[in-house]
Amino acid sequence: MKAVVIEEPGKFAVRTVDDPAPGELDAIVKVEACGICGTDIHVLRGEFAPTRYPIIPGHEFCGEVVEVGSVVTNLSVGDFVAVDPSLFCGHCRMCRLGRFNLCENWNAVGVGSVDGACAELVKVPSASAFPVGADFPRNWATLVEPLSCAVHGLDQFGPKPADNYLIYGAGTMGLLLAQLIKHNGAGGLDMVETNQARHALARRLAADRVAVSADDLDRPKGWDVVIDATGVVDRLESTGAVRRRSHPQDRRVKRVELTDDGRRLRVAFWEKLTNRSGPLGRLSGRELTSLRSLLLSAVRAPSD
């Protein structure tokens, strides 16, 4: 089959490689569509530590099952699937807690040490492939993975109707987050995006207002929730985006961000804030909350 192979950082080519063969619990997927994520750029540049070369990239993808392993029961040949690319060990502490996205031995299709979907065929664990309805546009299914990351990020703090939001970044993740928030009943949704060519789409999909800087948005009481979908930490540190709201008993400013130079969506509590005079430093002084979100979780807590 034909595949894109990153042979080493900065060097890639289209090569003819062997077709993948399934293990007893695997499925072979004929790739319909594969997205290019910011992580893929880091893999190409040699900036993503888990990557082992050579590797076939591609972790946001969908396609048709063309072969299954001997004991696979959840999939059939002909199923059209979206795939969770993360690979979990299943036995570390985080996996035993059901937090597979935080697996201590994490690997992933296309970005770790397992070949990905910039190819005609890709091998995946059958448990990581999820059938997509026949009425769903096939190439849209490649967005299931990034959309799942956005959903998992919002799950970390539980959006409330009527909250006012500020999102930094109107790229793919920012726009997905914005649409989820808008449909959840946001009181207001503003976005900051330095690339003005993205403004019209952001407004059409979700945003009430879009500006190149938070300073251009007239909101003296600030926002209830501030989301960074850029990974540019200094951008939020250097603005006045985080401000105390008018009700001191509910001073919660949440942050969901793409961190590690924008490589992945993480959730973690910051252990320290170096610039205590800046807006992020003021989080701790006002008992505000900051969160990060990592990847997606196939396990979600039941709703009340």
How would you describe this structure to a colleague?
The strands form five sheets. This protein has a five-stranded antiparallel beta sheet with strand order 8-3-4-5-9. A four-stranded parallel beta sheet has the order 12-11-10-13, covered by helices on one side. A hairpin with a 4-residue loop joins strand 14 (257-259) and strand 15 (264-266). It has helices at residues 38-45, 93-96, 144-155, 172-183, 199-205, 233-237, 281-285; strands spanning 2-8, 11-16, 26-35, 60-68, 80-83, 86-87, 107-108, 121-125, 129-131, 164-168, 188-192, 209-211, 225-228, 257-259, 264-266. It has two domains: 2-136, Medium-chain alcohol dehydrogenases, catalytic domain (Quinone Oxidoreductase, Chain A, domain 1, Alpha-Beta Complex); 150-285, NAD(P)-binding Rossmann-like Domain (Rossmann fold, 3-Layer(aba) Sandwich). The radius of gyration is 20 Å and the shape is globular. 17% of the residues lie in helices and 23% in strands. The protein has seven helices and 15 strands. The model is unreliable at 237-288 (pLDDT under 50). Helix 3 crosses helix 4 (172-183). It starts with a strand and ends in a 19-residue tail after the last helix. It is an alpha+beta fold and 304 residues long.
Summarize the SSE layout with pairings.
Blueprint: E1 2-8, E2 11-16, E3 26-35, H1 38-45, E4 60-68, E5 80-83, E6 86-87, H2 93-96, E7 107-108, E8 121-125, E9 129-131, H3 144-155, E10 164-168, H4 172-183, E11 188-192, H5 199-205, E12 209-211, E13 225-228, H6 233-237, E14 257-259, E15 264-266, H7 281-285
Helix pairs in contact: 3-4
